[in-house]
Description:
Layout: E1 15-17, E2 23-25, H1 39-59, H2 70-88
Antiparallel strand pairs: 1-2
Helix pairs in contact: 1-2
Amino acid sequence: MPAATFGAVGTLPAEATTGCGLRVPRASVSRYHEFVTCLPRRGHARGGHRRLADRLDHHLPGRPGTTAERDRVGRAVAHHRDPARRFAAP
Length: 90
């Protein structure tokens, strides 16, 4: 039996608010850089990934009380720098 029969599956709204504040049909919202054509949205995504990578890179390693290992932090930084680079490319 489908889960919707019991009301366990919610319905997604038809629209979503983008990073640049526009309300667009949910079908045109994507987290994958290949499908984002709006330059303000690409810039918003790029900036968010870049800021997070910078915060992780500069504030986490070596901070007193931090239990994160340097190689794990390095992987997290690389994980966010890659999308930032990809969202920057047209």
